[in-house]
Amino acid sequence: MDQELEGTVKVLLQKAGQTNNFIRQAVDAALESMMQYCTATRSICALLSVGVSHPNTLVRQCTARHLANLVEKVGAARLLSGMKEPTERILHSVTKFVQDVSPKTRYFGRQMLLSLSSHPNFDKILEKHISGQDLLTIKNIFINLNKEGNKMPPDSQSAKGKRIVPVRGVGNKTEYCEQLTSLLASNDFRDRIKGIDQLLADCQHNSNMVINTIFPVFDAFKDRLLESNSKVNLHALESLPKIISMLKNDMSRVVNILFPAIVDNHLNSKNNAIYSAAVGAINALILHLDRQILVQPFCTKAQFLKGKAKVDLIEKVAELVPEVYPCKPQVVEHKVLPLLWHLLSTSTHKGSTLCRSGSLSSATNKLCQALYVQMGPSLTDLSASQSATVHVLLNDILRTEN
């Protein structure tokens, strides 16, 4: 059975994401049997491979519950044995669970954290494999656990007995659109998260229906990127790369709807998880969509944003230049050059605006270099029609860098 474990767990966890309570109970029973009769460490590996980053909240909750039992069974000494890959894997998974949108998943994540903390060198191991904001978050959670203990969250009364009409399988696109957008616009944030999960599932299994209703669906999805609930924001942002990878160039039709919502509220976020998820969504757009389509929205936002968001987008534009210019030089000349002239005309070139991705002047330099590699001396020729400040500064940058 051990050899078939990962495939079996994958099928079971898919079923765990269904709303039918009887099916979920049967899945739990099957996973309990697996834990009893299969090798514990292999069971842990199978659950980690399938369930940790699953888009469905119920699947992650089920995964965390069974992992918590296995972690306690196997013990911290074996799980944190010093081998890099398994140690990192379990710690990174626990880090995700304790920050999950689901209170119950967070509860089971904290339970695993307590089990692992029994290792005598837990603090050193944690600092070795987890860093940055995640490490700070784990330490704060651990302090609270020592003060207050790990309390199981109560079942939500509003969620009890509430039945969500399954969207998948709806044949009429009007009905489909109404049901999905209603879920995404629900007053209950848990239902809005379910709506995001449903959209993700439909992109995989019912993509034609999503594409046929792409404007109203992603208009509703956009609101989830803009709302005040950070849990929903983060879940929507983290789902976007998967959605983009499945719909690919069909997403180009809604770039102008989604892109401002991705960057406006999130690229300047002090929340590392939200910032990273926003960057991931932007990278997915670059990876899966026609780059020519992205030039205009990227340049427009790069011109008017401030702070690290401005720096990040300028650097992304610099990455787009060598991809787009050989095929569509006019797109670069019409969209990217005005951005460059704006940056040079407003720059003090002192590099004082420091952000995660570096200074504003550094990003501007990268853009200058990217353009010069493609355009050569014609770039400086075109700058002659701009102000003397722009022309001189561009030549200074190119002379310094080269």
From TrEMBL:
Q: Name one Pfam family in it.
A: CLASP_N
* InterPro entries, A to Z: ARM-like (IPR011989), ARM-type_fold (IPR016024), CLASP_N_dom (IPR024395), TOG (IPR034085)
Annotated SUPFAM superfamilies: ARM repeat
Which GO CC annotations does the UniProt entry carry?
Answer: cilium; cytoplasmic microtubule
* Gene Ontology biological process terms from the UniProt entry: microtubule cytoskeleton organization
Q: Name one GO molecular function term.
A: microtubule binding
> The TOG domain covers which part of the protein?
158-402
Protein name (Swiss-Prot/TrEMBL): TOG domain-containing protein
Q: Which gene encodes it?
A: togaram1
